[in-house]
């Protein structure tokens, strides 16, 4: 505690010396230059933490002495914790300050990373799993970065920052899968967690340097504890059913029970939120006229896009003697999908420029159409590493445009005081869509195995990629219902008022 207090005091003095805070802690003219890199690193750390285990799950199974299902829980546990924390943190950030919630989230990310790293070094599966849960609770950082940026970044620069934060959800995810293999080859399995810990420290120090603006929403109302419990239970039941459906069996009693529980708990949550004086999630931000279409296409594009990043490492590591795949190591698999992350980074700064010309909705549709092209390429042109890499490059552009424009659309449609809540809801819908897409894609591939064997056939991958391409095309059509606006629309007006 004393160390944290000393660090905070040192950061305050440094911030004033650098001219980032005024005498009373307020923002200065220099603050705007520092905010974008700080919030982008914070978002990168959280996004990278989610996927950093994907490409090396088989190694975790070996080192922690668990089966494939147990290793998969290192990913599932993060997603469950993030699903619970993200919308709650967005609402609390609006009420109590986004700066404060970002600090709490980054501390959880740091502690969770250290716990997971030390536990992995000692072969302690329960400890590694607990660390992943703590890391997942840091998912609430993501929506709060939007809220803090909206308060501290000038209106003329905000569209670019919003697009960058939105794209970071995909960039960080791709970076996690790309970096894991080479990092483990160069060091050890725990290195993936030390990487996240290092990013968390950098983001934490940067956030401490920034001023803490006043909360944008009223904090007089009592917290909606019942709504929070019901929301958490609904998301846990839903994601457990989706993530474990293939393992337990889609028609098994546990999966059917979880699905029914998710429906009942979700209905109760809606009833409670309708009657709450200060609801945790304002349902207008979920199904309101302006945000309903945006949230719908978020789920759909998440389903289509996350199938690729889930299946590509599996495909690349398939032994070539099966008639397909390349027999790559986790390290080479990461390099094969590196174009996805690279072209996401290229697309991120282009998104706000395109949005000013053709509108954020059109940019999203371009991204979804490119996703369909890239996924179709993976479905029918996956026999050579070069064609797979080229399809990955197209997907990188698609992710950057689609996710970057979604952030702009949400921020533009939400009131200033609801920024954290609205982006939190949209973020969790990406997670839910991604979980659904990954589960469906893996189920298609696994179901292609011939009777009496466990090895999937090539047709399973072809079908899964082709189905994902059709889902991406569906997102193009659904996006027509989204209100057309540029990324510099009402956001700028709000901030300049």
TrEMBL record:
**How does the entry describe its membrane topology?**
Multi-pass membrane protein
Which ranges carry the Major facilitator superfamily (MFS) profile domain? 35-487
Annotated coiled-coil segments of the chain: none
Q: Which superkingdom, per the lineage? A: Bacteria
Q: What keywords tag this UniProt record? A: Membrane, Transmembrane, Transmembrane helix, Transport
Location of this chain's protein in the cell: Cell membrane
PROSITE patterns attached to this UniProt entry: MFS
Q: Could you tell me what this protein is called?
A: MFS transporter
């Amino acid at each position: 505690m004393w160390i944290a207090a000393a660090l905070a005091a040192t950061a305050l003095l440094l911030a004033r010396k650098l001219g980032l805070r005024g005498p009373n802690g307020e923002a200065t003219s220099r603050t705007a230059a520092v905010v974008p890199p700080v919030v982008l690193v914070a978002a990168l750390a959280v996004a990278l933490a989610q996927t950093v285990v994907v490409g090396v799950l088989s190694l975790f199974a070996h080192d922690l002495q668990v089966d494939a299902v147990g290793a998969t829980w290192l990913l599932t546990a993060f997603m469950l914790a993030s699903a619970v924390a993200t919308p709650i943190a967005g609402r609390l950030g609006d009420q109590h300050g986004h700066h404060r919630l970002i600090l709490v989230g980054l501390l959880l990310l740091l502690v969770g990373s250290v716990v997971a790293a030390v536990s992995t070094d000692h072969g302690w599966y329960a400890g590694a799993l607990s660390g992943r849960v703590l890391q997942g609770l840091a998912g609430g950082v993501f929506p709060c970065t939007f809220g803090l940026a909206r308060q501290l970044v000038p209106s003329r620069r905000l569209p670019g920052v919003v697009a960058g934060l939105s794209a970071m959800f995909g960039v960080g995810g791709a970076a996690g899968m790309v970096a894991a293999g080479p990092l483990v080859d160069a060091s050890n399995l725990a290195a993936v967690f030390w990487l996240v810990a290092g990013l968390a420290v950098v983001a934490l120090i940067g956030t401490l340097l920034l001023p803490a603006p006043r909360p944008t929403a009223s904090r007089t109302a009592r917290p909606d504890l019942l709504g929070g419990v019901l929301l958490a239970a609904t998301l846990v039941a839903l994601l457990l059913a989706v993530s474990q459906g293939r393992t337990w069996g889609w028609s098994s009693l546990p999966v059917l029970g979880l699905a029914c529980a998710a429906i009942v708990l979700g209905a109760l949550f809606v009833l409670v939120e309708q009657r709450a004086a200060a609801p945790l999630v304002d349902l207008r931000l979920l199904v309101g006229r302006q945000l309903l279409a945006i949230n719908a296409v978020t789920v759909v594009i998440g389903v289509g896009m996350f199938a690729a990043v889930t299946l590509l490492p599996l495909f690349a590591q398939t032994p070539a003697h099966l008639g397909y795949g390349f027999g790559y190591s986790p390290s080479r698999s990461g390099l094969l999908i590196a174009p996805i992350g690279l072209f996401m980074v290229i697309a991120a700064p282009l998104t706000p420029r395109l949005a000013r010309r053709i509108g954020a909705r059109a940019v999203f549709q371009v991204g979804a159409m490119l996703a369909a092209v890239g996924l179709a390429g993976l479905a029918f042109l996956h026999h050579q590493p070069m064609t797979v890499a080229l399809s990955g490059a197209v997907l990188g552009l698609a992710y950057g445009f689609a996710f970057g424009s979604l952030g702009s659309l949400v921020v533009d449609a939400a009131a200033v005081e609801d920024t954290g809540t609205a982006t939190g809801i949209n973020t969790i819908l990406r997670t839910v869509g991604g979980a659904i897409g990954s589960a469906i894609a893996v189920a298609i591939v696994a179901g292609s195995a011939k009777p009496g064997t466990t090895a999937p056939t090539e047709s399973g991958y072809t079908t899964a990629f082709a189905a994902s391409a059709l889902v991406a095309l569906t997102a193009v059509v659904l996006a027509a219902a989204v209100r057309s606006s540029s990324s510099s629309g009402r956001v700028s007006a709000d901030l300049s008022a």
